[in-house]
Amino acid sequence: MATSLSPDIPLRDPARVMRLSRLGSMHQCRLSFMRVLTRRMAQEGWQFARPVFNIDDKGVGHAVYSAQGPERTYSLVVFAHDLPPEMRSDRVIATAWDATFTLFDGIPSEADIESLSQNVPYQEAGRVNEKSLSVSRANRSVRLWEHFLEALSRGEQPDTDKIEAVGYLMRTTAVYGSGKLGASDYDAISDRDELRVPFQVEMLSVFLTRAFVRDLVNHMARARGGDKAVEMSPEIAGSLGIGNSTGLGLGPFIVNHPLLFNNWIETRETAIQRVRAVETATADEISAFRQVFARSQALVANWRSEHPVQIDKLAALRTDITRLQDHLSGDALDGAQPWDALVRWSETALSEEGQEFIASLILEPYGALVDDLAPSLADVDSEAFRIDGRMPISKVRALIEASFGWALDVDWSARENCARAWYVSEEKLEPRVGERFEEPIAPYETPLAPARDAAAAHTALKDWTDTKPIAAFLLRHPEHRHTIRRAQISATAPYSEIRDNTISAEMFPVDFLRVKLAFFGATHFDPRSDRWVRISMYGNAPYPEDLSPENADYWVYPEGLS
Amino acid sequence: MSFALIEVEATAKKAARGAGYGWGVAEEASKAARWLCAAGIDGVAALARALEKVDGKTLADLTPTALGGDWRSEQGLMCPLSAGAALSDAAVFWAEEGKRIDGVVVPVLLLPFAANAARQLDKVVTLSWGSTQIATDGYVASVVSGDPAADSAETVVVRCGGEVSQALPAQTRAIPSDADWSTLNQFAHRTYAPDTEESRLKGAGAGLNDND
Question: Which of A464, A490, A516 is the last residue in one of the domains?
Fold first, then answer.
C-alpha cells in the first residue's frame, strides 16, 4: 500500500537552512554518498577480491583490491610505505605518507602497476592518466597502530577503550578525484549509473582502503609475532572506520559549485519534506525509527572532541537526545503527520545539532519513499553556467534580494565584516584563510564572499533601468559577472547560496567542512582548530566480503552497544 | 602529456584571473578553453596566445562599446573573452542580423561563445574571417575552410546558418604543448599568495606534524 502524503508540507525555508551554523550542524542521512554506494553495491551483488597482496614484513609493497559491479570492475591499487615519523603530516604540504592509493578503472596490468608505482607514491609530484579515477593517501594513527601491532603480535586483542578514543587505524589526508593529477574527470564517467551520484569514486576508494588497512595490520602483526600472533576479531575490525583529516580545501568547493551544492541540500530537504508529509506512521515504521534512534545514541556517545566549539555542541546534542527520549516515551508519534510534528517540536525544543540530527533520522524508516532521490544529488546541467543576457535588470535585482536581502545593509567596509580573505598559497597550492588587515593576501583573494559581492552588484545596478537586459550591464561591469551568474543559478536552485557572511571575523571555517563531510556520510566530527577537522568514515560498516542487502544500509548506527 | 579537461578548466580560470580579468570572465575563459579542447581544437594554445596579447593592456579598452551594431573597441584591439561573453549574452539580439566584430585577438576563442548561442537558439552558428570558416551546432565544431589558428582577425562575421559537416572528433582529454601549458601556469601563478611563515602556520589551521 502506498504511503499517503499530505500536499501541504513545504520545503524548509532556505533562509533558515542555509545559515552557516545550521550547515555546520548537519549529520549524515540515508542519502549520504557512502550509504548510497553501499546500498547499490549490495543490491547489485558486487563481488570483491584481493588479487595482489605483495607486502613485506615491514609493511612495504603493493596490493590490489577489486570491486566488480554488473558492468565494470574497479581496482584499488595500494602502495604501502615505511614512513619516518618526522615526515608524517596531514597537511597538503606533506611529501610522503604511510600509504598511497589510486582507484583504477578496470583491472590493472603489471605494466600499469609499474607505471603507477612511479607516480602514485609521490601524489602531487606524480602524474596519473585517465585510467585512474582517484588519487589518495593515508597516514597511520601512530598511537593506535602501534598498540594494535603490539597486542595482536602477542596474541591478544587490542584494548577497546583505546580503539574508541581514536576509531580508526589510518586516516586519509586527501582523496582526490575528478581530474586531479591527471586522473579521469567526472564528466568522463558521469554517464555510468554507479558513478553518477557525487563522489562515488572517492567513497569506493575509501571503502576498499578500510579493508586494506585491516589486512595490513594483521599481516604486520603476524610478521612480528609469528605463531603467537592473532588476527583482530571481527567485532573490533567492524568497529574501525577510516579517519580523514580535512583542511580548508572543502570550503571553497561548496561555494564554487552553487548548483551542485543546491542539489545536495535540496535533495535532502525534499526527502525531509516527503517524510514530514506522511499522514500516519505504521507500527513498523515507528518501531524502525525507535530502533535506529536507540542505536544512534551509541554513535553520539562515542563521538569525542577536544575543540571548545564542538564540546559545547556535543553537550547540547546530548541534552537534546535526553529531551527526545522523554518526548518519544509517550504517544508523540501516534497522531496525524507525526514526523512533521516531531520536526516542529524540535525547532522549539532542541539545538541546531539536535534539529538536524532528527531531520536526518526521520528519513531512516522511509527508504521506499526517499531513496529514489539519490540521482538528483548530481549536477549534470552544464547549461546552468550560461548567463541569460535577456533577463531584465529588475529580475536580476529581485534574485539578488531573495538570496542576499540580509546582506544589502551590511557595512562591508567595516573591518569586522570583511576581516578574512580566502586565498591559495604558492606553496603546493594549499587553500587558506587569512586576516585581510594583517597579512598581504587581499590581492590574491578567491571569490568566496558571494554575499559581499552580491551587495556590490546590487549597488552597481541601482541606476540601471528595470527593463534593460542584463547583457548591457555586464558589458559595462564585467567585474560583477560571477555574481550575476550566481543570481541566475539561484532562480531554480533555492539552496545554492550560504546566507551568511563568509569573510567575517566570526566565521567558523569548520562549518563549511562539516556540511560537505556530512553529505559524504562522515561521523565523529572533531575540529582540531577552527579550520581543520578530523572525521570517521565507514565506522561499523561491513567489510567488502561481508556486504549484503541486510547490512548495507543501517551499518552507520552501531548495534548492541547502546 | 595528456590532461583531464577539468585540469584545463581549472588552470584556464586561474590564468585568466592572473591576466587581470574579473572572476566571472575568468570562468568564461575556463569553460571556453575546455569547450575548444573537447571539440578537438587546442584551447590551451588559443587562451595562452590571447592572454599574452592582452597582458598589460587596460581590459576595458578591449571590449565592445555597446551591445548594438558592429562591435569595435576603443583601442581597435578586441578581446575575444569580453566580446565572446557579450556574444553569448546577447545571442537573441543579433540572431537575425548576425554580428561583425573588428580587430579580434585569437578569433577562434569566440567559437565556444558562438556555441553557447547555437545551443540557446537551436541553430548552427558560423564564424568567418579571412578565408577561414568554422561552424558549430553548440556541441561540436566543423572547420569548413581555412585554418582556425590565427593570432588576430581584421573582422569576424558571426551569423546563424551554415552546416556542421565533418565535425572534428570530440575529445575527453587535452594534449597541449608544454610551452602553452607553461604559459597558462605562469599567468595562474600570479593568483597564488607568496608563502610566509605566518601563512604557513596559521592559514590552514593545522599543525605540521601528524604523529598522534
Answer: A490
